[in-house]
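Q: What structure does this chain adopt?
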Amino acid sequence: MGTARSIPKNRQSRGQLHEHSRGNKYPDLIRAADPKPIRVFVQDGASDNRSRRPGWNWVIGNLNLVAALEDKDYDYKYVFGEGVHNGNHGGTIFPDTIRWLWRDYPKRVREVCVSPRWFTL
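A:
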């Protein structure tokens, strides 16, 4: 996996699985490995990078990733929206994303002191 220093400044991104981070290898790695007990959330947009350069089309890369997750019976969710993969789309769906990721997680109620008040979580 590449590091931020090996990626040109104008190509850096957060958590995206693309050629510049060797993310296009993940579908093969997923298919070759035993499934892991994790949930995977994938967000994409109609205006994301759709380059014709092999390995640089993020929409196709994400579809390949999702296909590998499906093949290995992972618990995943793929959300495709209008526009690009950015904070506007991600921020809008963030509450539902967190609810989906943490569903079925045991709920615990505890009290926390945040001076000078008590809160129940």
